Amino acid sequence: MEILLAIVIGAAFGAVLDRIGATNPTYIGRMLALTNLNLMKTILLAIGTGSVLMFAGQMIGLVDVGHMSVKAAYVGVFVGGLMLGAGWAASGFCPGTGVCAAASGRKDALFFIAGGLLGAAAYMVTYPAWKASGMLDDVMGGKTTLGTVPGSKFDGLTAMSGDIIGILMGLAFIVIAFVLPERIGGGGVAVPAE
User: Fold this and answer.
1) How many angstroms separate the CA atoms of 137 and 178, rounded?
2) Domain-by-domain residue ranges, the chain?
3) What pTM value is reported for the model?
4) Considering 86, 91, 97, 175, which has the largest number of Cβ atoms within 10 A of its Cβ?
């Protein structure tokens, strides 16, 4: 049943990504060039809404804190983030939108997926060297959150409630999504999803 639910939710999420234009590399390129911010506004609104719902749900007991997963911070994460951003800008796809674009019939997305799999394989083969380099050693406390979340096994950098910080950050993302203009400097034209 859980697999079926995951497939249904994943298909619905993919359909929404396709509908808002996130599977169109031209649309993504214009977002990254800051000439059309509609997609960015949608992403910020989704992250903000999800944060408010999750952290508020944790506070009132609807969401089990035990399901919260915090990834360790290490230099390799920051390097990988820069590589992901460069790949996203060059290809017009991130991993999720690339799979959705392939499912919607975009052939260029198949090459993107193949490149991602090749990169993952190269990382697996060279993992011992990366581990030995120290780039995978924890920094800033490893698995640490900005604020302390009651009932979680993760330390907070501050004594502030992590749930309150999560809600405030989510609300900030929602406000930014509504305040951002659709375009900066008048450049770029909205591109419908292909």
Assistant:
1) 39
2) 2-179
3) 0.76
4) 97
